[in-house]
# Entry
Amino acid sequence: MKKMAAKPALPGEMLREVARLYTRAQRAVAECCRTGSTQCHLLVELGRSGPLPLSELGARLSLEKSWVSRAVDGLVERGWATKEPNPLDARSWLVTLTPDGEDRVRELNATLDNHACRVLEYLSERERATVEKSLLLLLKALREDVDIASCCPLPQDAASAKDRKSCC
# Structure
């Protein structure tokens, strides 16, 4: 018998649980499309931004340089990207989607968007409208939160910890 998870009580818990479950489902969808999770992230980011230095690509996705390098090599082997010396910085590599890579990004985006639509089909029309409005508000808040990294700094000592308000 399948164990039911406890209902998340706080908004932060609910948001993290939604993000966790949605990310897991999207990874499974991408894997079914013959694209690993890391390669999927790289393709989608390159599709959004255009050519990027290898180091910038890793920074945007918070991935270690060696992971990014191996994943990009995989994209190159599949004909989805090129990796060439960066004309603006001879010490770095520039990663660019090929036309096949651009096609792959469009296919992935369509597949992932279709999955999102299927998830929303479990809701009534009114619930979908509420969720869409809430997602727009959340997207706005996330885009305005430019100080993400310092949201919850570690306290220097116990005395200062009780003076500081929790971000959560």
Notes: The two ends are 34 Å apart (CA to CA).
